[in-house]
Amino acid sequence: MALEFCLATASSFVAPLLADYLVKPIERRIRYLFRAKLPNLDLVTSKNHVDSKSSDAAFNKIMEALKDDKVQKIGVWGMGGVGKTTLVKKVGGEAKGFDRVIMVTVSETLDIEKMQNKIADDIDLNFEKKTGEVKAAELWSRLSNGKFLVILDDLWNEWDDDEDLRKIGIPLVENGKGCKIILTTRNYSVCQHMECEEIVQVKILEDREAWTLFEMNAGLKNADSSVIGEAKKIIKECKGLPLAIVTQARALKGKGPNTWKDAREKLEGSELMEIRSIQKKKDKNAYMSLKISYEHLEDKMAQTCFLLCALYPEDHSINVEDLVRYAWGLNLYNKANSIEKMRNEVLSVIDQLKDCCLLEDGDDGRYVPKL
Ligand SMILES: Nc1ncnc2c1ncn2[C@@H]1O[C@H](COP(=O)(O)OP(=O)(O)OP(=O)(O)O)[C@@H](O)[C@H]1O
Ligand SMILES: [Mg+2]
């Protein structure tokens, strides 16, 4: 009886204590665990990341623009495989002052519903209704109530500017609420069309940086001198393009000197697609990257001009006047009834090719093809 009394009395004051000191904190922790999201895995930077002068400068510029209240949209552009996605992931991983960083890959065809689902997933939003417009309204409402960084990776088509953002349900940041946008694209004109207040170009790697990236991916620490010699020549052929460097290095890692020699000879002969180890791995990204940029050129004349440029020897500066003459001879623009008109057309095509990084400035008004 006495014992029973003791226990009853004890339980009457121990139970609340247990609840306060033990159960509630555990319950809070469990609730927190279910609610809190792990860091966005999209934004994890590879351990093989190499810092480069160009991407460091771009990184700093973007970080500054993120702090600037006047900037709503930041455009990051550069040729295929130069490291835009890698860079914006790093930015997303290090950006401060946002409730959440959302990363969406847009790609060639705009799929609004897919984007809405990805954004909702990143912010733990369960849509109440499944129709596109209602989803947009739900996203808009949630995103307007906080501060978010939205990374739209790989834009091709010029969107209907802010109207498309509205259709998806992305409110631009105003008075500290809403979304700051970083978009990446291969084409400068996409940044212009989207009216990005800050436009940042990512450029190719310098020689030393290219070597570090190659060495890291090819595992050259104990390689013999003939392999090192071939590696140096192969890197030269990669022209500082991270995608080409990583693709080549991984394909050749651990292979014997003959395979290295063979790969180098084929690269020097511009036979990228014939390198067996690349074919085997179906790792044709460097080639595909160029092909997609080419296919996205707006008109046939731009494609033909690019092909004409590609006929020149590697690294050769092309005289604009020569291109004008070829265009005239081949009647590439049938509305041009004078050389003057054709010249204007060729100059506009050159701007197009430069904007999507297929050509770059050479000396004295000449242009060099990029690859
Ligand atoms: N700084 C870097 N350090 C290490 N690897 C890099 C770096 N930059 C790019 N790479 C590698 O190069 C390849 C291409 O990079 P990334 O996908 O970022 O290019 P991109 O500019 O986004 O290309 P695309 O226009 O095709 O989208 C990837 O394999 C990536 O890992
Ligand atoms: Mg990319």
UniProtKB/TrEMBL annotation:
Gene3D superfamilies linked to this entry: Helical domain of apoptotic protease-activating factors (1.10.8.430), P-loop containing nucleotide triphosphate hydrolases (3.40.50.300), Winged helix-like DNA-binding domain superfamily/Winged helix DNA-binding domain (1.10.10.10)
Keywords: ATP-binding, Leucine-rich repeat, Nucleotide-binding, Plant defense, Repeat
Coiled-coil intervals, chain numbering: none
Gene Ontology molecular function: ADP binding; ATP binding
Name of the protein in its database record: AAA+ ATPase domain-containing protein
InterPro entries: AAA+_ATPase, Apaf_helical, NB-ARC, P-loop_NTPase, Plant_NBS-LRR, WH-like_DNA-bd_sf
Ranges for domain AAA+ ATPase: 70-224
BP-aspect Gene Ontology terms: defense response
KW Repeat (keyword) present: yes
Pfam families referenced in this protein's UniProt entry, alphabetically: NB-ARC (PF00931)
